[in-house]
Amino acid sequence: MNFPEIRCLIRPLMCLALLYTTGFAQTDDGVLERDGKRAEQPPAESIEMPEVSGEAGQEMDEEMTEHSQKSGEAPEEEQEELPPIEKMPELVSFVEADYPKDVYSEGIEGNVLMTLLVSDSGSVDSVWVDQGVHPILDSSAVKAAQKFEFEPAEASGQPVAVYLQYEYRFSLQEVAQDIEPMANFGGKLIERGTRAPVPDAMVVITFLDTTGEVAGLPFELYRKRIGEFEGQYLEEDRLVTMSDTNGEFTFFSLPTAEVALSVPAAGYEMFTDTFQVNASEEVRMEFYLHRLDYSNYEIVVYGKTSKKEVSRRQLSLNEVKKIPGLGGDAVKVVQALPGVGRPTMGFGDVVVRGAPTWDSRFYLDGINLPAIYHFGGLKSVYNSDGLEDVSFYPGGFGTRYGGGIAGVIELTSRKPKTDRWHGSADVSTLDASFLVEGPVNENLSVMGSARRSFIGDLVSWYVDNAPQDLPFSVSPFYWDYLLKVNYDVDENLSLFATFLGSRDSLNMHIEGMQGGSEEIDEQTDKMGASLMFHLAMLGVDWKISKMFTNTFRYGFNYWDNQFSVFGQMKTKNISYDHHLRDQFDIHLGEKFTVSTGIDLYLMNLDLQLAIPQEGGLIRRDTVDNWLFGTLGGYSFLEWRPIKDLKIIGGLRYDFFPELDYHGSYLPEFWNYEDIDNTTRFSGEPSARLNMRYSINDNHIIKGAVGNYSQTPQPVGQVIMKGWGDPHLPATKAAHYVLGYEWQISDLIRADIQGYINNQWNIPRMADPEDFDPDAIDGEALWLEDGKARMHGVELMLRHDQGKRFFGWLAYTLSRSERYDNTEKKYVLYGEDQTHHLQLVGNWRLARQWESGFRFRYVTGKPTTPVIGKIENETYSYFEPITGEVNSDRLDPFVQLDLRVEKKFVFDKWLLSGYLDLQNISYFLYKSPEFTWYDAFYEDKTTVSNIFQPGIGVKAEF
Amino acid sequence: MKKRITCILLVFLGLIGCTEFPNSYNRVNADMIRTLDFMYEPAEAVPGDTVTMTAVFAGRQFEIDEIDWSISFDVISNNYGIDTAYNLQPLPEVPVESSSSFSSNTQCVVKKFVVPEDVIRNSPAIPRNWLADIPEEFAGSIPEWVYSLQKDSVISMIETLTEKADEWNEYLQDSTHTEETLAASDPLFSLYVNRINHLLPELLQIFTAPMRIFADLPGAHRIKSDYWVRYNRQLIDLPGSMLYENTNPVIDSISVYKVAEENLFSFDPDDDSYSYERIRLLGPGDEQWDGVPVNVIVDEGYSYFITCHNQPPDSLITMDSAIVNGGKSEEKLNPQWYFQLSENEIEKLNVTEYMNIVDIGNLIAALYPSTDERISTATIWLKLSDYMINENRHPVASTLKEVLVSFTYTQAYLDSKEKK
């Protein structure tokens, strides 16, 4: 054992002054003199050795030795006889002095300065206390020093005895070093209500009493010592640690004391509480932190995904749930975006850029969704709480989508949560629903949801309690369910199965009514409508390698659509749909991604119709196994020639098995009347190009062009023998989009787009002008010469979610026209809305209150004026004589909706309640929805939507 | 059909209070010309028939001779009910003696016209490819030899049959003759019996020609009235015929049911157990308007209904029977009630205080007496028309009856209404 090791072991700081025993005299003031010259003894501080070891300690030894050499000359009378010291004594055996607890517990510490006489054998012959600290400590130091053993000093090659001054330090600090870390206080930080862990949060302990002692040490010393432990530190007398990713934290070796624990986590209210800590036992607790704002937790906020499409619009799901008038339904947000027309009251239309609903397509995870809304757009069929994303493409979309000529709405479901089991229950004046999700095991997770409406119950209640007895009953209801099972095989392969079902039903019974024939419907006193579907979907997301990914979807859908009117007419459609979509992506470096896929949608329809025709005949049609669909294949290339430019070009071909016409072999961007562009296949090719160029971080220009096609609409009817023309061609369209995005500030950005959407080969219902008295095959029902043109400018100016506010201004200036074959000119389409302004704002207030508004101004819908009437004597009613189609308009539509929401946060669950006041502006202005004439077409009234208050509560676990 | 559905919706909207119009379709106001009925005799024509049409109006008095009449034999419609009429021509004037069984509240005009012999052959409503628009199920049941015939050939075949009816009947009147012997001696009869007869009910529905009469009221609107020409009457006497001739409904009586139960919306004396009193407004044999009102005592605790009794329907056979196995629909009757109140009596009343008749597609309509005793009389008309829900181009036949009602209100009734 060498000396440095000894020092390291014993750790008292030794103060050495090595004196040669001859030729030195100690003066009264303790200064050693030789030859009358004073040998300056270095002050104790200057020779204190820091806690060093190894080489550093060795350097100190050498320094010490050098100092001794310089000052270590022999006493004057023996100068001639004493040879110079060649080697200083070296401590080889150290003995630790006893530092009794009853001494250091009184805070006594200090250095005992001693002079040791080290003999030529290396033993300590004598010890003198030069400067003491405390009798006990002085004695203890002497006893220890007497047991020291040195290698003796040498002079002229011979061991010699020397005096050596030695300072033994009794340090409380050194005592404290013996305290070992022991976890004895910890816990988990959990967000109140959601029970989500709070990671990376600072946890602070303040000791309320710092006057005592701990383990015999002064409190401050103890605190300082434990502040040195790994994982915790002292900051202004407070002990601090951080929570880990699971929200867990631990304090070590806390003394038995009352402490104040505080958690000043960002985004949370300061948590403060006092606890009694016991040093000898470990305590773990759960600490619930109250989030400052619970608006953000619900669902993952949309990331700013790389935008592939020019006009793709996304909003945060939690944002859209706050928008007044949407009833907390995220899917309905598209109604608040530019480019989407206002639907007429009671209709769930999605009018995209002036086109009817049937021109747009709706998908769930890439699979065709039979219906997107319940009853006239009240709620979406997919529970918003199970959504990851709602993407809306008002036009100019890529080749991934086919079979539609206006817009696309794609719902992307999210994976079930895997951290723990979650649940929620939601009850409103419309419906009640619940959602449960959680992990089954490490790889398997499940989400289930169900919902049922209250509408029927409310209506029935009203009918039963109306001031005047009503001779009818109405029982509308809807329900839906969702089950999603997700299995992550590994990080590259994920499988899921989704089961989604929905039913909308409306029955009206008029007491005593005797309608049409019991042959058509046995219940001639009832009107009924029912739409039901059950969709089963399988999905595989496989990242095969860094270069290849594959996305597979298969959906099977059964839907049953029935409609009957008092025995007068009845329809029943049962369909079995298959939708297979598989996309293969090849990532070729940074600049290229090639994607190719199939998009095969096939519908097998069984149709039964019993519909009255003019003249009394009930037209009965039964069609079994009628195949409809869009069998498409597509490919597109994503190319980044430079960092700021992205170009996506793609091709697609869609085959329509239900059609019997000569399709095109070249993509049609207008009606190629002058060239023969026909093949024998009833399908259409499409070519689409998207481009985005970032001028800089804040400015982007973008553009798109593409052609589109779909089966003629209304699907089936227009190509059915007896009701349509089986040889109608696909309806076609060309989209042109030019846009500009401006990131005005961190929170504010603008998106402006101009568009043109031209459509042709639109089925047009024949009118009397089309009749031909000499027609061989009877009169035309639908003709293929319908055409439309739509153009407009859309502005989206939005303020992202800031500390308190989010909102946007959506404005559309548009025109939608159809060609009037009678007038031989374009006239307004019924869905034209010149100005469509929406202002949406939501404020987060204190104490978990939120309030928002939605204001809408929309140009009145076009109407066709009634300029006269003709009386049908045979059937006893008046028919209107109309003027120019859509040459008149209703008054503008103005509506203000307000919403107030309050969250109540409990430790393990949340309760929120809202009040949604739709159309509160009704009391100031009655926005016209449609005009209703009296039986004589002489008097008319305008029907307005009424004020609709809605309330709801939601509990989340 | 469109009208019926519209009516249903109107009733529904009216019941839930969505409509606020002061005028209702079935109330005749003195300031508006109202068409009550165009009655045709015969109800359906055969080519060459002379038809008598009686048009009855109520409401505002006008110069009935100033009506501008026209007719079109070229009416086209498609399966969606979109129709038009070409080649309008003045209604031929055939002298007619006017007689009326209606009160002075009405104005009647009687017209006669002759149906052209070639109206079916020339009708654009029957395309040359006459099977083009009929349901496939029916088309599939037609033998190929018929299927391949052109429009004119089918008409010629039918017209040939019309000429043979008397001859065959005369032959069969001899008890020694049977259809078998006739078939053996007459190949056409054999063809008829074996291959045509069962097709005729449906075939004649296709070969029915619509025509349309227009009446432009002076200073008011235009009226259109449809009429149909088909061969049924000429072929109905063929041996073994399954055809029928549509005739105008006959109203035997009109009555009010006073039912001892409040707030009923419908009533069926055959099914419901409520006690009731039947007050006959018009009895069998009361052909002529006598101008004597029948009194109805309006009392608290009762519901009132008005109904008619009529003769049995014309037929049970429809085109649908060829399509649906065993399916049959009988002719049904559609009542359209009109009423007019005295201008003097309603002068100071609110519309909501008027009496009302609410029809929900039932022959028994709800009668809501006035809530004010000042309304003491009402003229009520019933237009009863028929419809055959499964028949193509069914000739709509109709008839009109008028009754006069007086009301006496009990004090209990008036008090109860006062409270409400």
Descriptive notes:
The complex is a heterodimer of chains A (957) and B (420). In chain A, helix 1 packs across helix 2 (54-71). Mean pLDDT of chain A is 83; it is low at 1-79 and 296-307. Chain A has a 22-stranded antiparallel barrel. Helix content of chain A is 7%, strand content 50%. Chain A is mainly beta. With 420 residues, chain B is of the alpha+beta class. In chain B, 23% of the residues lie in helices and 31% in strands. Chain B has helices at 2-15, 119-122, 136-141, 144-147, 151-173, 179-185, 187-196, 200-206, 232-235, 320-323, 343-346, 411-419; strands at residues 27-28, 33-41, 50-59, 68-72, 74-77, 83-86, 89-90, 107-114, 209-216, 222-229, 251-259, 276-282, 294-298, 303-310, 332-341, 356-358, 365-368, 377-387, 398-409. In chain B, the strands form 5 sheets. Chain B has a 5-stranded mixed β-sheet. Chain B has a 5-stranded antiparallel β-sheet with strand order 12-11-14-17-16, with no helix packed on it. A 4-stranded antiparallel β-sheet of chain B has the order 7-4-9-10, with no helix packed on it. In chain B, helix 6 (179-185) packs across helix 7 (187-196). The radius of gyration of chain B is 25 Å and the shape is elongated. The interface between A and B is large, with 66 and 84 residues. Strand 51 of chain A pairs parallel with strand 10 (222-229) of chain B.
Structural class of chain A: mainly beta
Cα-atom radius of gyration of chain A: 44 Å
Q: List how many beta strands of chain A DSSP finds.
A: 58
Beta-strand portion of chain B reads 25-35%
What ranges of chain A have pLDDT less than 50 throughout 5 or more consecutive residues?
Answer: 1-79, 296-307
Count all strands of chain B and give the number.
19
Q: What is the structural class of chain B?
A: alpha+beta
Largest interface: A-B, 66 and 84 residues
Helix content of chain B: 10-25%
